Amino acid sequence: SAPTTYSYLEVSEPRPGVGQVTLSRPKALNALSTPLITELNSVLQSLSTSPTIGAIILTGSPKAFAAGADIKEMAPLTFSSAYTNSFIESWSDLTTTVKKPILAAVSGYALGGGCELALMCDLIYCTTGATFGQPEIKLGTVPGAGGSQRLTRAVGKSKAMELILTGKFFSGEEAEKWGVAARAFATHEELMASVLDTAETIASYSKVAVMAAKEVVNKSQDLALRDGVEYERRVFHSLFGSEDQKIGMKAFAEKQKPEWKHK
Ligand code: CAA
After folding, report:
1. The whole model's pTM is what?
2. Which residue among 131, 159, 197, 257 has its CA within the 20 to 30 Å range from the CA of 178?
């Protein structure tokens, strides 16, 4: 198919099976305007359904992952226009429609909606010097893209209250220490090298198993423990119906490398 060009994104396949989406609205530090989110949803949808892609990286520039929702776009909104148009609801499409893992690689600012976008991804790698925060309180509002819920689950209530009530920033080093990020790296280059390695590793496995693994881990955020464990067991049982489970276990017994059919 003909290559699609985007106004606010760059899209590449830097490693086999890895789709990379780079937010590129440098003049506004990647502020997440509605047209940018529309493009992001469209590219994520196409990567999600591409038969060759196994993992997706979402990143920004060394200076900014994203500095939040577009404040200039939001400034004139009214309650009724925001409510009737479900403002910001489409931001979370990626959490409901993309079954492949999305890895956020965060350098620079990840503020407000930028922090929330990273938190919607399946895992976060960042630089130690990255700047996270939910500064909405300073604008006379509150997080609107899941920050009060996902950040609280990640860091606990007391710390989330402190961050959201003061708008204080936290570093990538703290994000790693608190479990918001899986890993933090000294430089943007090290961050990108490592996120590519991890994404390539994930993309080398059975897509059926990878998608199921993402699904069961994410269920832990929504379900009580007993329900979550039962859900996991159902999915585990169902994977005995996949070809890749037979291929993976047979290859282990025969000391061979599995050749996944992704079925
Ligand atoms: N929306 C719109 N434009 C933004 C923006 C945003 N969130 N963040 C930065 N920009 C623009 C600036 O207006 C500026 O544009 P001009 O050159 O046209 O003036 C340009 O990007 C560069 O920004 P600065 O000059 O401010 O750069 P800096 O290096 O001095 O400061 C910063 C960087 C600390 C990140 C600062 O830009 C800032 O505080 N940005 C806003 C952060 C914020 O409050 N984010 C939360 C938004 S609310 C939200 O996201 C709601 C939600 O929950 C969904």
Report:
1. 0.97
2. 197
69/198 same-domain check: yes
* Model ipTM over 0.90: yes
72 lines ligand 1 (CB under 6 A): yes
Domain ranges, residue 41: 9-203
Cα–ligand 1 centroid distance for 146 (angstroms): 19
Task: Give mean pLDDT, residues 105-124.
Answer: 98
How much of the chain is helix, strand and coil, in % rounded to 5? 50, 15, 35
Contact between residue 94 and residue 120 where contact means Cβ atoms under 8 Å apart:
yes
Query: Do 186 and 92 fall into the same domain?
Result: yes
Question: What is the enclosing helix (H) or strand (E) of 153?
Answer: helix 147-155
- Does residue 181 fall inside a structural domain? yes
Q: Is residue 197 domain-shared with residue 214, that is, in the same domain?
A: no
Per DSSP bridges, beta strands 170-171 and 9-15 are unpaired
Q: Is residue 261 part of a domain?
A: no
**Ligand 1 close to Cβ of residue 109 (< 6 A):** yes
Any ligand 1 atom below 6 A from CB of 88: yes
